[in-house]
């Protein structure tokens, strides 16, 4: 490829090409190539960083899922994954309050509230589904003896 098409591909205008000497055109093209190479290296570094972050996130999720499957698995805290960021900070973090309660499984108040809301949602969803299916089958009464109110309203 000649200098003129390369110069245009670098984003410069045609009239500017004719105003410059051959050495100046060559310098501009070399500068453009260096910028492109630098941008490419920067994109590769950002991509590698993102890959490492996603991989680390997968490890952390696996650790928490492992804890759900087996209580003997210890949850690794962020300072164990990133010791250079957290240093030697001594901090006691108890996400579920289970460790202090011994064998008794105890959820935090926020988790208890969330669980109650989810139970209520599931109950209402199932009731609506039963009613819809009963209507599709042409049944007036689905055979339930309850009043159709949510569990939390009983």
Essential attributes:
154 residues, mainly alpha
Description:
The protein is mostly helical. The chain folds into two domains: 1-95; 107-154. The chain contains seven helices and no strands. It has helices at residues 3-9, 14-19, 22-69, 78-81, 83-86, 98-101, 109-137. The longest helix is centred in the N-terminal third of the chain and has 48 residues, at 22-69. It is elongated and about 85 Å long. The termini are far apart. 1% of the residues are buried. The model has no long low-confidence stretch (mean pLDDT 83).
Counting H and I runs of at least 4 residues, what is the number of helices?
7
**Unreliable sequence segments:** none
How many domain regions? Answer: 2
Q: What is the string of helix and strand elements?
A: HHHHHHH
Strand and helix layout:
Elements: H1 3-9, H2 14-19, H3 22-69, H4 78-81, H5 83-86, H6 98-101, H7 109-137
Nutshell version of this structure?
The chain has helices at residues 3-9, 14-19, 22-69, 78-81, 83-86, 98-101, 109-137.
């Amino acid at each position: 490829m000649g200098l003129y098409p390369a110069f245009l591909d670098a984003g410069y205008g045609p009239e500017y090409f004719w105003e410059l000497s051959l050495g100046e055109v060559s310098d501009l093209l070399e500068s453009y190539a260096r910028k492109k190479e630098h941008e490419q290296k920067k994109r590769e570094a950002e991509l590698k960083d993102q890959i490492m972050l996603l991989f680390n996130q997968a490890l952390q999720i696996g650790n928490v899922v492992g804890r759900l499957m087996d209580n003997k698995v210890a949850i690794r805290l962020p300072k164990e994954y990133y010791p250079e960021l957290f240093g030697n900070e001594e901090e006691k973090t108890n996400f579920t309050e289970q460790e202090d309660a011994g064998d008794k499984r105890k959820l935090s108040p926020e988790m208890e509230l969330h669980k109650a809301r989810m139970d209520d949602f599931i109950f209402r969803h199932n009731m609506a589904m039963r009613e819809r299916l009963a209507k599709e089958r042409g049944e007036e009464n689905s055979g339930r003896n309850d009043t159709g109110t949510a569990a939390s309203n009983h």
